[in-house]
Amino acid sequence: MANIYDEMIWNARNADLFSFVLENYRGEVSLEGRNWMRLKSDHSVVLKRGKSTYSDYSTGEWGNPIDFLMKYMRYSFKDAVESLQPYTGDIVSNYIDGIGKNISTINSEKSDFQLPKAGKTNKAFKYLTEVRKIPVKDLNELYNYHLSNCRNIFTDVNGNCVFPSTDKDFCELRGTNILKPFHGVAKDSAHDGYFSIFEKDKNQKGAILCESAIDAISLFVLKHDEGYNYCSMAGLKDASLERVKREYKHVILAVDNDDAGQLFRDKHSELMAMIPKNKDWNEDLIQKTIEEE
């Protein structure tokens, strides 16, 4: 199978997603006029003609065409990039000629990705402790732990809580305004990363992979097992899981207790799994906190 080059990835992330879905998955969407469509399986997921992104109005999350195909159509990263090529502005001649950089080369290069600009106020700590009910004592311990990546959490200029990866090529974003929920990611165009609450250490047994950074922190507070690194992929992303699997010999899935989470567990049934009692690990932590009050 041909290599995927950086130009192809860039083009795929800016492909005509509306036309791709209309031509290949017409039976799975509902059209609203000429310029809008919704997924039949999830009416909160909306695509607009002329836009290369989708939006999930129930969560505030949005993403590019590759993200859409991987999350909702169960494509692999490579298959998504290749399938989207006919829907880009122009087919990359370097791909046909065998000229360019393959993914392994791209990932080895230093990224020029910049994290969101930090704001003047620190709403993150207050949001995590007061809204998400992360105990102040536990969060302070995580901020001060010698391998902690939590000390890098900050609030951006838009008031979002930012959870950067240790490589600074990816970050998860969570809105701190409970009246306007927002969940998204920012990342290098050639990377699918993950957040972890610790830096990688040779003494760790492996990684426990959650859907969100808040769930990863909540699960650590519930388990307090420092033998594992607690990570999150900001959704259900095969590419992020594959990256974690490359970097850790032992991976445990700890995604949500819902239909999408079960589909993801079934798809990766070779991995051990942990399932929260409620929908997610933060809900489990909040329930435990309420019971102990």
Short description:
The protein has 293 residues and is of the alpha+beta class. It has helices at residues 6-13, 17-24, 65-72, 77-84, 93-97, 103-108, 124-131, 136-144, 213-223, 238-247, 259-267, 281-292; strands spanning 29-32, 36-39, 45-48, 54-56, 61-63, 154-155, 160-164, 170-175, 183-187, 195-196, 206-210, 228-232, 251-253, 272-273. The longest helix has 12 residues, at 281-292.
Would you mind describing this structure in some detail?
With 293 residues, this protein is α+β, with helices and mostly antiparallel strands. The chain has 2 domains: 6-108, DNA Primase, Chain A; 124-292, no CATH class. It has 12 helices and 14 strands. It has helices spanning 6-13, 17-24, 65-72, 77-84, 93-97, 103-108, 124-131, 136-144, 213-223, 238-247, 259-267, 281-292, and strands spanning 29-32, 36-39, 45-48, 54-56, 61-63, 154-155, 160-164, 170-175, 183-187, 195-196, 206-210, 228-232, 251-253, 272-273. Helix 1 (6-13) packs across helix 4, helix 3 (65-72) crosses helix 4 and helix 9 (213-223) packs across helix 12 (281-292). The longest helix has 12 residues, at 281-292. It starts with 5 loop residues before the first helix and ends with a helix.
Order of strands, widest sheet: 1-2-3-4-5
Tally the helices.
12
Q: Average the pLDDT over all residues and give the rounded result.
A: 83
Shape: globular
What is the SS-derived class? alpha+beta
Report the order of strands and helices: HHEEEEEHHHHHHEEEEEEHEHEHEH
Question: Roughly what fraction of the amino acids lie in strands?
Answer: 15-25%
Biggest β-sheet: count, sense, barrel? 5 strands, antiparallel
| Rg of Cα set | 19 Å
